[in-house]
Amino acid sequence: MRLNPLDGELPSSLQGEDAARWTFGANIDLIRSAEIVMARLDDFRGSDEPDSGTAFEVGFAVARGTPLWAYRSTETTLAERVKATTVNSDGGICEAGYLIEDFGLRVNLMLACSAHIVVGGPDMCLDAIAPVLDGAPPVLGGSGLAKR
Predict the structure, then answer these.
(1) Cβ–Cβ under 8 Å, residues 131 and 38
(2) Cα separation of 131 and 72, whole Å?
(3) 101-118 residue pLDDT tens
(4) CA 146, CA 148: separation in Å to the nearest integer?
(5) Cβ within 8 Å of residue 94, ≥6 positions away
(6) How far is Cα 4 from Cα 10, in angstroms, rounded to an integer?
(7) Phi-psi region for residue 100, left (φ > 0), alpha (ψ -120 to 50) or beta?
(8) What are the residues whose beta carbons fall under 8 Å from the beta carbon of 113, sequence distance 6 or more?
(9) DSSP string, 19-73
(10) HSE of 15, CA atoms in CB hemisphere, 13 A
(11) Confidence at residue 147, expressed as pLDDT on a 0 to 100 scale
C-alpha cells in the first residue's frame, strides 16, 4: 500500500503548534508503518539543500533500518550547486564562510550514503524500487550509495 505524508486529514480544530505536532506525529507513524521510504531530495525553498523536514524523516527511517530510496531531478553535485566565494587549501568556501564538501555526491554525504538515489522524478524512483520488492538487487546509476 502506498502511504503519503498526511494520509489522514488534519483535524479542523487544530491550528498553529497543535497542528504542527499532530502533523509530526502522523508522519512519524507513517514512517514506522512503512516497509520502504521514498523521499524527494530536490533543493527546497531556494536553498541548495533538500527540505530539512525530509532530511529528518530520512534520518528517522535510517535509524529504524527501513530501506530508503530517494530521487533528485538533476545530476548536479552539491559542490556544483553551492558556489564558492573563495578557495583555500581545504577547498571551496561558501558565502557564509563554511567549507563546501566535495565528495562528488548530489546531496550531503549523510543523505547520499543512506539512500539509493535515482536521478529523475517519483515515477522513475518507483520503477527502480519495484523489482527490489520482488527480490531483485537494486539497479542503480551514479550515486546509489546505500550499502548499510
Answers:
(1) no
(2) 20
(3) 889 999 999 999 999 999
(4) 6
(5) 82, 83, 84, 85, 100
(6) 13
(7) beta
(8) 145, 146, 147
(9) HHHHHHHHHHHHHHH-SSEEEE-S--TTSSS--HHHHHHHHHHHHHT--EEEEES
(10) 1
(11) 42
Q: Which tens digits make up the pLDDT trace of 43-63?
A: 898 778 899 999 999 999 999
Give me the domains of the chain, ranges plus CATH numbers: 34-133 (3.40.50.450)
The four Cα atoms 146, 64, 122, 115 give a dihedral, to 10 degrees, of: -10
Please say whether the beta carbons of 16 and 33 come within 8 A: no
Q: Of 1, 38, 31, nearest to 116 (Cα)?
A: 38
Per this entry, what is the length of the chain? 148
Amino acid at 88: N
Contact criterion met (CB below 8 Å) for 135 and 124: no
Task: Quote the cell numbers at residue 147.
Answer: 550499502
